[in-house]
């Protein structure tokens, strides 16, 4: 195609977009302001779909797309309601050499941990393993089935005057899913913010030899070192049937959001987390703002009955979600950086004005520790309202990059990101549309696949195109943040989030990886709960990084070296073929450092 013809084609496409609507940020403001006024809810779609009764099935996540956009199949799905049911299914699968994977009710993990190998594997869903079996007020423990949601645990514990102290912010996760991926909240106090640190007993069903009936229940307590493998297991050891959690007396918290200039963020980040028990920080790099969440326990008699109904987790009318997504697509397609920045400022201003959904700065822990009101259901609804990312409509569609950086080097990482902000400030407006960079505090864990040291978890959400070969606006800058965090600073990826690139060489970052693999081989010697993809993540097989059209755009393929100790310099190249990609040059220089650092160079677009 000639250059002039190509330009005309692009211009026509842009005019066609604008003829549909040249959108302003007003609809986005309208969207956020009215989120709280709709109460008609729609329950999310089941991630498992079968062509006949529980057979010939596909499975996806709650976003309906895995990072590499593959479709995962299964021969059959089972829905156990008790431990004996799990034993029968695992025994049958083991006897017949069937691959197995555990699936959850809402399937919120982004990577494809739930995918069996091939299309003949079996799925074991915890959808109906949903009972809180016992709340022991005297021992201050909760015994639950693995399919119980965080919301259920929080509510049932509160009825007994008890609380699960540290949790993720989204209450739609199941307890088995939380343990499987090491999900966490934010705290450097006590045992830290990970739920798995509160596990005192765990029951797990694994394959077994014929003399043991092909399946076995293992009961793991704190005295058993295998618990350190099972409490963050990625579903690779077997099926967790029951979990016993340590609780605390119910308490109140006080939350105050303090917005400051981000000029000294790198100097404040460690001390702030050490000073406040439930601290976190939301960073808006383009706006040079840091929102500090001052969050601590207060005496139980302190006045206040606040509820935290986080705005982005509220149910939203489908028409508004579609309008927002169309707006986002238009500004990205037309390269309208100013428009994206204006949208971002509008969004953050509304969130700040509404205190992110907090009704009072003091409240009981169970009312403010997590939220997710969009998960409700109303069969009589006349207005379709859903979670913003519900795949049944044209709503949010995004990538999530999340990794933790050790406290000893987190200052350096923030400084590096600030250099990129200085280079291309508008590049960060896209992530500010998704509430900026969430910084949560994590502690080193006893779990073999848990956090290796105290650190800060950086959670970044950003626009993803429905077309895998369409580049994003300022994609190079955001991916440079990802590369710096994951490779230069050795960031540990969140197991339940991220694109494939974040898991490249990941097992080299865990000092007890060999201990986990030893337990894995003991519990599942035939690898029935493993897949080719999980073996690739663990470095047991090659092929995690694939090469196909658009793979670099999707985080599936990387040309930069994981280990750059001896690299003098390197030119990174991505090609542009008729609007499908970009030609980007980045120079990496070692400067006698242990790891190379990126030096920004111009971005060139070359027509081929």
From TrEMBL:
Key words, A-Z: Ascorbate biosynthesis, FAD, Flavoprotein, Membrane, Oxidoreductase, Signal, Transmembrane, Transmembrane helix
Organism annotation: Vigna unguiculata
EC code(s) of this entry: 1.1.3.8
Protein's pathway: Cofactor biosynthesis; L-ascorbate biosynthesis
Start and end residues of each FAD-binding PCMH-type domain: 70-250
GO biological process, one term: L-ascorbic acid biosynthetic process
InterPro entries associated with the record: ALO_C, FAD-bd_PCMH, FAD-bd_PCMH-like_sf, FAD-bd_PCMH_sub2, FAD-linked_Oxidoreductases_BP, GULO_Plant, Oxid_FAD_bind_N
Transmembrane segments: 21-41
Keyword Iron (UniProt): no
Requisite cofactors: FAD
Record protein name field: L-gulonolactone oxidase
Catalytic activity of the protein: L-gulono-1,4-lactone + O2 = L-ascorbate + H2O2 + H(+)
Keyword Transferase attached: no
